[in-house]
Design brief:
heterodimer, A: 238 residues, alpha/beta, Rossmann fold, six-stranded mixed sheet, four-stranded antiparallel sheet, globular, B: 416 residues, alpha+beta, 2 domains, eleven-stranded mixed sheet, 12 helices, 49% helix, 16% strand, elongated, transmembrane (chain B), Putative ABC transport system permease protein (chain B), Macrolide_Exporter_MacB (chain B)
Chain lengths: 238, 416
C-alpha cells in the first residue's frame, strides 16, 4: 500500500511482505499557541533487503517520520506495523529492544564509557548473543574505521566523526531487522562516508536487513535502492 | 544486571560528582549518628536518673507498719523502699554536738540524746539522693544490715567522740533499761550547717543524727508497741507510677490519717532536662533526615536532568525504565555505604562533642549522676543505615518518577 513505488532500483525481493508498514500515519505537535501537523496521512511499506534514503528540506518531518517508524514516539493518527503486527501490540520498548537500531544525528553516546564499552553496552541491553562481545565490538569499530587505540578511549576524547562511527558501530552491533540512521555521514570525510554507505548497502543486500537513512546528501541518496522525499508532510518516492 | 556495571562505570568516570555526593552523604550520616548518639545517651542517662533518683513517695498512716510497707513495696513500679521510724535514745559514754546559742527559758524539757533514725536503706534518703549529705567514710546502710547492730553517724559527732568506721558506739533507751553497742559502719557529713545559729535541742541538730537498721529502735524500746512506722518512702521510676501505689496504699491502710506525698522535684530537676535534650535530638534526627533527603533529591534530580541524553539513548535501545532507576539507585547506594562506614569511624569523635551538650555535668546533679555514657551501638548504626538507605531511596525514586515519564523521542530528536 505505497503512495508510489520507485522503479529505477528494484527491491531485493519483489514479493517479500513488508517488514514495516505505515498506514494513515499523521503527526501533530501541539505547542502553547498552535498545533503543527508535520506528517499527513502517510502510507508506505518498507521491505527487507532494501536500502532506503529519506530526503526533504529542513522541517519537512524527516526526523519525525524516523522517530515514529523506529518506535521512539507514537503517531497522533495512523499505525506502524512490524511484520504485520501493530507496534502498540508489540510494545514500543520491546520493538526498539529487539527489532530496530537507530543512529542519531547527535550520536547520543554514553559519555562515561569508552567506544568499545558503548558498543558492548548496547549489545547487552539488546541481548545480542555473542560469545565474545568485546571482540565483536572491536571488529565492528574497525569496520567503521576506528582502530583499537581509539576504540578503548573515552568517547569524549574522540572527534565528532569518530563519535559518529562509534554510534554506527553500536547500531550495527544490535543485529536487528531494521536500521534507522539520521544524517549518519554528515560529519564524516568522503572516504569514511563511502565506507559507511558500503556497510549499509551490504547490510541490506547481503544480510537482508531494511536500512532507512534520513539525509540531505544527494550523493548518499544516489547510492540507495529507493529514495523517499518528504514535502509538506507528504511522502513521494522515486 | 548490566545497569549495575553501568552505575560502576558512571561513578568512576564522574569522580568529582561522586566525591561531592559522598561528602554530602557523609555529613548527613555523621549528623544522624550524632543525633542518635545524643538520643541514646540521654535515654541511658534518663534511665540512670530514674534508677538513682526516681520519684520518692512518702506514705504516712495510722496503720502503717513495717510489714505493710513491705507489702506495698511489691506494687509494680516500686524499685526500693525505706520504712522510717525516729526516736531519741541516750548516748552512753559520749558527747553530743550542742547549740552554741543559750537555751530559751520557756523551751520544753530537753531530751538529751541523739536522733536515731531506723531505716532499711540509707542511700534512699532524699538528703543522700540529692547529694546534700555525703558519706565521708565507710559505707551506707543497706537492707542486708537488718538484724545487725550497725549505725551510720554524723561526722561532727564522730570527731567529737573520736569515732571512725569500725568503732563501737553505745546507745541506751531513755529509761536506761536497754543498752546496746553498735558498730559504726559509715560516717556522713551533712551539707547544711551542723550547728545552726539559733538554739536547737541536741536531737534536732543534723550533726547528731544516727542512722540504724529499723530493728534497732525496738531493741532500745523506742517506737510504739504495735510496730507503727512514722512513714515509709517508696522509690518509683517515674511520677506516672505513683497512681497505682496510691490506690494500693489506700486500699491497704485505709483513710485514717492517710497521707500520700509525691516528691518528684529531684526527678523533674534531673530527668526533664534530659528528656528535653532527648526530644531535641529526636527532632534533630528527623530534620537532618528531611534536609538530607531534599538536598540529595535535588542533586539526583539535577543529575538526571544533565543525563537526559544518556537516559534517552538507553531508552532508545529498549532499556527498561526500572533499570534506569536501578542504575541511579545503585550509584547513590554505592556512595551511601562508604559514607556510612566513614560516619561510623567519625562516631567516636562526634560522641565527644555531643557529650558537652548533656546536662549530666551540671552542678545541680553534683556527684549524683555519672558522666553520660556515649557509645556507638550496633542499633545506632543500624538506624543510621536504615535512614541512610531510606534517604537514598527517596531521593532517588522521587526524581526517578521523572524518568518514568520520559519519552526517548522528546529527549533525543531535534524538532523538525
Amino acid at each position: 500500500m505505497t503512495d508510489a513505488v520507485s522503479t529505477d532500483k528494484p527491491p531485493a525481493a519483489e514479493t517479500a511482505p513488508p517488514v514495516l508498514k505505515l498506514t494513515g500515519l499523521s503527526h501533530t505537535y501541539t505547542g502553547q499557541r498552535r498545533r503543527t501537523t508535520v506528517l499527513k496521512q502517510i502510507d508506505y511499506s518498507f521491505e527487507r533487503g532494501v536500502f532506503y534514503t529519506i530526503l526533504g528540506p529542513s522541517g519537512s518531518g524527516k526526523t519525525t517520520l524516523l522517530s515514529l517508524a523506529s518506535g521512539l514516539d507514537r503517531p497522533t493518527a495512523g499505525t506502524v506495523a512490524f511484520d504485520g503486527v501493530d507496534l502498540e501490540e508489540i510494545g514500543l520498548g520491546r520493538y526498539r529492544n529487539r527489532h530496530v537500531a537507530t543512529v542519531f544525528q547527535q550520536y547520543n553516546l554514553l559519555t562515561y564509557m569508552t567506544a568499545v564499552q558503548n558498543v558492548t553496552t548496547a549489545m547487552e541491553i539488546t541481548k545480542v548473543r555473542a560469545r565474545h562481545k568485546k571482540a565483536r565490538a572491536l571488529e565492528l569499530l574497525e569496520q567503521v574505521g576506528l582502530d583499537r587505540h581509539h576504540a578503548t578511549r573515552n568517547v569524549l576524547r574522540l572527534s565528532g566523526g569518530q563519535q559518529q562511527r562509534v554510534a554506527i558501530a553500536r547500531a550495527l552491533a544490535c543485529d536487528v531487522d531494521i536500521l534507522f540512521a539520521d544524517e549518519p555521514t554528515g560529519n564524516l570525510d568522503e572516504d569514511t562516508a563511502e565506507g559507511i554507505i558500503r556497510i549499509f548497502r551490504d547490510l541490506a543486500h547481503e544480510r537482508n536487513k531494511c536500512v532507512v537513512v534520513v539525509t540531505h546528501s544527494q550523493q548518499l541518496a544516489a547510492r540507495s535502492d529507493r529514495t523517499l522525499t518528504l514535502r509538506r508532510g507528504k511522502v513521494s518516492s522515486r | 544486571m548490566n545497569f549495575v556495571k553501568r552505575a560502576g562505570l558512571s561513578l568512576v568516570a564522574r569522580k568529582g560528582k561522586t566525591a561531592l555526593l559522598l561528602g554530602i552523604f557523609l555529613v548527613v550520616c555523621v549528623l544522624l549518628l550524632g543525633g542518635f548518639l545524643l538520643e541514646g545517651a540521654t535515654a541511658r542517662q534518663e534511665a540512670e536518673a530514674q534508677r538513682r533518683i526516681g520519684v520518692d513517695v512518702t506514705v504516712r498512716a495510722d496503720r502503717l507498719t513495717a510489714e505493710r510497707a513491705g507489702r506495698l513495696a511489691k506494687v509494680p513500679g516500686v524499685q526500693r523502699y525505706n520504712p522510717l521510724l525516729r526516736g531519741v535514745p541516750r548516748l552512753q559514754g559520749g558527747k553530743l554536738v550542742r547549740s552554741d546559742a543559750p537555751r530559751p527559758p520557756d523551751s520544753r524539757p530537753e531530751r538529751d540524746g541523739p536522733r536515731l533514725i531506723g531505716l532499711r536503706d540509707s542511700e534512699l534518703l532524699l538528703d543522700f539522693a540529692t547529694g546534700r549529705s555525703t558519706l565521708v567514710e565507710g559505707r551506707p546502710l543497706t537492707p542486708q544490715d537488718a538484724g545487725h547492730d550497725r549505725v551510720l553517724i554524723g561526722a561532727q559527732l564522730a570527731e567529737l567522740n573520736g569515732l571512725a568506721a569500725g568503732d563501737l558506739i553505745t546507745l541506751a533507751s531513755p529509761d536506761g533499761k536497754h543498752r546496746r553497742a553498735y558498730e559504726v559502719v559509715g560516717v556522713h557529713r551533712d551539707g547544711r550547717a551542723p550547728v545552726p545559729d539559733g538554739w536547737l535541742e541536741p536531737s534536732e541538730l543534723p550533726a547528731n543524727q544516727i542512722y540504724a537498721p529499723l530493728g534497732a529502735l525496738a531493741d532500745l524500746g523506742l517506737g510504739s508497741p504495735d510496730g507503727r512506722l512514722d512513714e515509709a518512702v517508696f522509690r518509683l521510676g517515674s511520677p506516672e507510677q505513683a497512681e497505682q501505689l496510691h490506690a494500693a496504699a489506700q486500699r491497704l491502710l485505709g483513710d485514717a490519717d492517710f497521707r500520700f506525698d509525691v516528691n518528684d522535684k529531684a526527678y523533674r530537676d534531673q530527668v526533664q532536662p534530659l528528656r528535653r535534650v532527648g526530644a531535641f535530638a529526636g527532632t534533630l534526627v528527623w530534620l537532618i533526615a528531611g534536609a538530607g533527603t531534599v538536598v540529595l533529591g535535588l542533586i539526583v534530580a539535577l543529575t538526571i536532568r544533565e543525563r537526559r541524553d544518556e537516559l534517552g539513548m538507553l531508552l532508545s535501545l529498549g532499556e527498561r525504565k526500572w533499570k534506569l532507576i536501578g542504575q541511579h539507585t545503585v550509584e547513590v547506594a554505592a556512595v551511601a555505604l562508604p559514607a556510612l562506614a566513614l560516619a561510623a569511624l567519625a562516631g567516636a569523635a562526634c560522641a565527644g562533642t555531643v557529650s558537652e551538650l548533656l546536662p549530666g555535668h551540671t552542678a545541680s546533679a553534683g556527684a549524683l549522676l555519672p558522666a553520660p555514657e556515649l557509645r556507638l551501638t550496633a542499633a545506632d548504626l543500624g538506624r543510621v543505615a536504615g535512614l541512610g538507605v531510606g534517604i537514598a531511596l527517596v531521593s532517588t525514586v522521587l526524581p526517578g518518577i521523572g524518568i518514568l515519564r520520559l519519552h526517548p523521542r522528546s529527549i533525543l530528536a531535534a524538532t523538525d
